[in-house]
Design a protein that fits this description.
A hairpin with a 6-residue loop joins strand 7 and strand 8 (about 120-130). The protein is built from three helices and nine strands, in the order E-E-E-E-E-E-H-E-E-E-H-H. It is α+β, with helices and mostly antiparallel strands and about 190 residues long. The strands form two sheets. Strands 4, 5, 6, 7, 8 and 9 form a six-stranded mixed sheet that branches. Strands 1-2-3 form a three-stranded antiparallel sheet, with no helix packed on it. The longest helix is centred in the middle third of the chain and has 13 residues, at about 90-100. The chain has helices at about 90-100, 160-170, 185-190; strands at about 25, 35-40, 45, 50-60, 60-70, 80-85, 110-115, 120-130, 140-150. The chain has two domains: about 10-45, Ubiquitin Ligase Nedd4, Chain: W, CATH 2.20.70; about 50-170, Nucleoside Triphosphate Pyrophosphohydrolase, CATH 3.90.79.10.
Length: about 190
């Protein structure tokens, strides 16, 4: 599988995971998107979105942004965050990513929003957290960290539309109402 950070690429998969026969792009329903369909067993390969968890972390009233060490991101600012592992609660992934990228432990205080864009595979879930004071330090994948007052956010140098949209929602107070940030296993077992 080839990783992608751009538009959905159907060429990432060439063979059926069930029987190994070649896949071909077909429309199953006239009004639906093209799907990868097996030429032998007619199984459909659904390309599921990848879930990303991010955190808008305020420290002393300023917002923490980072730049990654990856060449394509090294000059752009983004929110600390990353991919959610299979079976990992999204909230736990958000807190893990903060720990990995800025060496801080936080408690989430609310959901800012869920952001997705037509033709792009990730679904970005953004939480908020606040610390009165802290000294973030760059993690292994982090090139640089900076705290920005709301009026100093480098809007033209943000990495992704989701970073821009989440920051705007957060600053305008349009965040979702805080919900319990833990999963109730009893409710999951009842489903």
């Amino acid at each position: 599988m080839i990783s992608t950070t751009g538009p959905i690429r159907h060429d990432r998969y060439r063979f059926c995971p069930a029987c190994g026969a070649p896949l071909a792009l077909h429309r199953i329903h006239a009004d639906g998107p093209p799907r990868l369909v097996c030429s032998a067993c007619t199984g459909v390969v659904y390309l599921d979105p990848k879930v990303v968890a991010c955190v808008i972390l305020e420290i002393g009233g300023k917002i923490l942004l980072m730049r990654r060490k990856r060449p394509d991101d090294s000059h752009r600012w983004l929110l600390p965050g990353g991919y959610v592992d299979e079976g990992e609660p999204v909230e736990a992934a958000a807190m893990r990513e903060i720990r990995e990228e800025v060496n801080l432990d936080v408690s989430l205080d609310g959901l800012v929003g869920v952001f997705s864009y037509a033709g792009w595979p990730p679904v970005i879930i953004v939480y908020s957290a606040r610390l009165a004071e802290a000294s973030p330090q760059a993690g292994e994948e982090t090139e640089d960290l900076a705290l920005f007052a709301p009026e100093d956010i480098p809007w033209d140098a943000l990495a992704f539309p989701s970073t821009r949209d989440a920051l705007r929602a957060h600053l305008q107070g349009r965040a979702c109402q805080p919900m319990p940030l833990t999963v109730c296993t009893a409710a999951l077992n009842a489903v």
